[in-house]
Amino acid sequence: MTGQTIAFYLIAAILVFGALYIVTSKNIMRAVFMHLFAMVMIAGIYVLLSAEFLAAMQILVYAGAVTTMIVFSLMLAGNQDSPTGGVSLDNKKKLPALLVSGGLFLTVVFMIAGQKWPSVEKAAGLAAPSVAAIGRIIFSRYVLPFEVIGFLLLAALIGVIVVAGREE
Amino acid sequence: MVSLQHYLVLSTILFAIGAYGIMVRRNAILILISIELMLNAVNINMVAFARFVTPETLAGQVFTIFAIASGAAEVGIGLAIILLVYRGRATVNVDEIDLLKW
To answer: Of A115, A96, A114, nearest to A104 (Cα)?
Structure first.
């Protein structure tokens, strides 16, 4: 039982609890804040996988920006009189949904268990990939996807302003 | 020792929970949050594979950065559409938004 194992199981337990809370909560605001919590836990998973830059990105983008956007849209589009709006947040198809997602889970776990995976971390002796290395590879080999993603973000920005900015 | 399977199973659990949330929720914002959960499950997969299979190329981490960026764009567009629907229909429950259903 190394520290890494303990940390993994602790983070995984909190993460699964948070995810279950998100899909079962009766209060939409609590679900949103549990989403924030789960995103921070996923950043912890990235740290365990020695991807520190991704952990920072995760916290900045998902825990910071996305949660803020969701809270604001909840303020603008949510029901004002009560957190749940007096109506149920769920539909009546809980059992089929449980069957489908449980079947999906069992199928994938069965397939994972049937495979032989590389068990040793090849990078055990390797120094953690630095932010400089990531920056170098983004601007050399992956410069075209980088430009495309920049264009996508620009298009999304303009699209959001056009779609939601109109007020008449 | 945490092996690759641990991360894969964790990500499968998150993916299944997200799928359940998408199927069971009525509120569009909660559906969007469930989609985010599934997207992050896939990202965990990519980073785990990058760490265990090809730790020297960094490709998995770079593509996770791109996935996070497109996920952020997706949330922005999705919330804008939800806002627009709310202005027109005064509801964000997806089973009441049925203008295209006859």
So the answer is: A96
Say if the Cβ atoms of B33 and A39 lie within 8 Å: no
CATH architecture of A1-80: Up-down Bundle (1.20)
Please tell me whether the interface predicted TM-score (ipTM) of this complex is above 0.85: yes
CA-CA distance, A110 to A126, in Å (whole number)? 32
pLDDT digits (tens, 9 = 90+) for A21-67: 999 888 888 899 999 999 999 999 999 888 889 999 999 999 999 99
Q: Are A149 and B70 in contact (CB under 8 A)?
A: yes
For chain B, domains (ranges, CATH) are 4-89 (1.10.287.3510)
Burial environment of residue A119 by CB neighbours within 10 A (0 to 12, 13 to 18, 19 or more): exposed
- Say if CB A43 and CB A11 are below 8 A apart: no
pTM of the model: 0.89
Tokens representing A99 are 């069957």
CA–CA gap between residue B33 and residue A20 (Å, rounded): 12
Task: Report chain B residues whose CB lies below 8 A from the CB of A53.
Answer: 61, 65
Pairwise CA distance, residues A99 & A110, whole Å:
16
Would you say the C-alpha torsion B16, B17, B19, B23 has a positive or negative sign?
Answer: positive
Instruction: Tell me the backbone φ, ψ of residue A128, rounded to 5 degrees.
Output: -60, 135
Name the token pair of A126.
């390797």
Q: How far is A19 from chain B (nearest CA, A)?
A: 7
